[in-house]
Write a structure and sequence with these properties.
Number of strands: 32
Radius of gyration: 24 Å
Helix content: 25-40%
CATH class of one domain: Alpha Beta
Pfam families: AMP-binding (PF00501), AMP-binding_C (PF13193)
Shape: globular
Keywords: Ligase, Membrane, Transmembrane, Transmembrane helix
CATH topology of one domain: GMP Synthetase, Chain A, domain 3
Number of helices: 18
Organism: Brassica cretica
CATH architecture of one domain: 2-Layer Sandwich
Protein name: 4-coumarate--CoA ligase-like 2
Family: Belongs to the ATP-dependent AMP-binding enzyme family.
Length: 590
């Protein structure tokens, strides 16, 4: 059955809202109607299949979800102000799951206001970049929201990154100030090229560290009473709010410019998906878009209480669940697998009966893992999703228990998301149940890559379509299935690993003539990097020597776990590595 919509098929803004709700309910419940769609005007009528959301007229898939409500795009508004204005009845925003310290919503917003005033007095202005290098903390959102309230840009660094990796991020983003902890300040100092970089410690003040300049503590900022008034600079919704680093679709790590409007749209997506005032535990690093977009921004607007663990440890997670009775958990696949493997002991030793929803992201879960999880935790539904840093996390999601039964799927397109399936060879637009590259248009799509117009143009076209680099199909009921990766990224424990980065390091070794890196499947991590190596003539370089060489230079999730030696790396006439041939070879050897 088809439903008729009228819309303007010309170019539309990226945050074009479709379909509009009318008194007949959302698209998924209609048997047929005519409705105004879009913000530009009515020109042509198109046939839209209500089951799949696919439009025959323009080959676009439209979200079947109720649309989100967004502020007018020309309204001056920063995401911090938007979040603080959202009504709810929540009392406690964050609980430190280790120390028990609580941060109420009133204390949170007073802290944000005071820290923002202190940052302004230190010279931080609109457009300036501030870096945070810290494990998960109940104060992480205070820093992020304070920075963004000024129209400045927060960039998040992974605490497990090496000084060299952090140095690349700092060289690209050029922060004017940093927040870090006493344990990580030496790593920040080693990465900083600017010996006078001002640093605020998040866990107390100490003597200056060589290479940086300690200018105070976050706790002191939160307790200060700034009498000096500051000039409020107008923040546009299209201004960059956060700069999160991703390998994107082309391999090399790049700064993803996430705007205030992107984050506001994410908040509204969370509102439609989850509702108000639930309880959860944060175990995923807040430097990652999945956690930053949820725990450090969106869930605050919904009045949720978040118990914060500095890192994932199963025993501490279970203790926090028993003590604080969360309703929701957000996990990446290795954590889900760990709960499956330890289910007998968990159910006998811990009371996890408060839990009713697990939100899983970062990589797909197999049907076998989901079925085992549900068998061991029968009162819990597992909601999967799909997203990129470039889409401010989720663009396809599951909302209900019924949707979780579509095994292998990432759910339906999120509110206000449009999708196209494009043949990667011909550029032809494809339809229902046809596999091609997934292109997305949404109010959550990034502004672009920081100081990299070429990469931005390669990833987002002139009409606002983001090319994901993932091979997908959308079935007859609108569910999104990720089949394979066109892009060459490896997903290990939810993190992105660019083969090109590891290959460059390998080729710098004096005994390696050629190298190629591809993923090797792993039940817990999803994938690990493995390397095919061509040794220089007469050299006897071993597998362990190669793995050790890489391990000294990269974060642990980038470490190479397997090495195979070849006489030559298969390549096409233009010299590009034929990774599919290597993947076939890997399959035959496993």
């Amino acid at each position: 059955m088809q439903v008729r919509y009228e819309c303007n098929k010309a170019a539309r803004p990226r945050d074009w809202r479709v379909p509009l709700r009318d008194n007949q309910g959302p698209l998924s419940q209609r048997s047929g109607t005519t409705a105004a769609v879009g913000e530009i005007g009515l020109k042509k009528t198109m046939a839209l299949d209500r089951k799949s959301g696919f439009c025959q007229s323009n080959s676009i898939f439209y979200s079947k979800r109720d649309p989100m409500i967004l502020p007018p795009p020309n309204k001056h508004l920063d995401v911090t102000t938007f979040i603080s204005s959202q009504p709810h009845r929540g009392k406690t925003a964050f609980v430190d799951a280790v120390t028990g310290r609580r941060l109420g919503f009133s204390e949170l917003w007073l802290g944000v206001k005071r820290v923002a005033a202190c940052l302004y007095s230190l010279g931080v202005r609109k457009g300036d970049v501030v870096i945070i290098l810290s494990p998960n903390s109940i104060l992480y959102p205070v820093v992020s929201l304070s920075v963004m309230s000024l129209g400045a840009v927060i960039t998040t660094a992974n605490p497990i990154s090496t000084p060299g990796e952090i140095a690349k991020q700092m060289k690209d983003s050029f922060p004017v100030l940093a927040f870090t902890t006493s344990q990580l300040v030496s790593k920040l100092a080693a990465a900083a090229s600017n010996s006078s970089l001002p640093v605020v410690l998040m866990d107390g003040a100490q003597a200056d560290e060589k290479g940086v300049k300690i200018v105070g503590s976050l706790e002191a900022m939160m307790e200060s009473e700034q009498s000096e008034s500051r000039a409020n600079q107008r923040v546009n919704q299209d201004d960059t709010a956060a700069l999160l680093y991703s390998s994107g679709t082309t391999g090399k790590s790049k700064g993803v410019m996430i705007t205030h409007r992107n984050l506001i749209a994410l908040v509204q997506t969370y509102r439609l998906r989850f509702g108000l005032e639930q309880r959860t535990v944060c175990t995923i690093p807040m430097c990652h878009v999945f956690s930053f977009g949820g725990f450090a921004t969106s869930l605050i607007a919904l009045g949720w209480t978040t118990m914060v663990l500095p890192k994932f440890e199963m025993s501490k997670l279970l203790s926090a669940m028993e003590a604080h009775r969360p309703t929701h958990l957000t996990l990446v696949p290795p954590m889900v697998v760990a709960m499956v493997n330890g289910a007998k002991e968990i159910n006998s030793k811990y009371d996890v009966s408060s839990l009713h929803t697990v939100v899983a992201g970062g990589a797909p879960l197999s049907r076998e893992v989901i079925e085992k999880f549900v068998k061991n935790y029968p009162n819990v539904k597992v909601l999967q999703g799909y997203g990129l840093t470039e889409t401010t996390a989720i663009v396809a999601t599951m909302f209900t228990k019924e949707e979780t039964e579509r095994y292998g799927s990432s759910g339906l397109l999120s509110p206000n998301v449009e999708a196209k399936i494009v043949d990667p060879e011909t550029g032809r637009l494809l339809g229902v149940d046809q596999t091609g590259e997934l292109w997305l248009r949404s109010p959550t799509v990034m502004k672009g890559y920081y100081k990299n117009e070429e990469a931005t143009a390669e990833t987002i076209d002139s009409e606002g379509w983001l090319k994901t680099g993932d091979l997908c199909y959308i079935d007859c009921e609108g569910f999104v299935f990720v089949v394979d990766r066109l892009k060459e990224l490896i997903k290990c424990n939810g993190y992105q690993v660019a083969p090109a980065e590891l290959e460059a390091l390998l080729l710098a070794h004096p005994e390696i003539d050629d190298a190629a890196v591809i993923p090797i499947p792993d039940e817990k991590a999803g994938q690990y990097p493995m390397a095919y190596i061509v040794r220089k003539a007469g050299r006897n370089l071993s597998e362990s020597e190669i793995m050790g060489f890489i391990a000294k230079q990269v974060s642990r999730y980038k470490k190479i776990r397997k090495v195979v030696f070849l006489g030559s790396i298969p390549k096409n006439p233009s010299g590009k590595i034929l990774r599919r041939e290597l993947k076939k070879l890997t399959t035959s050897k496993l």
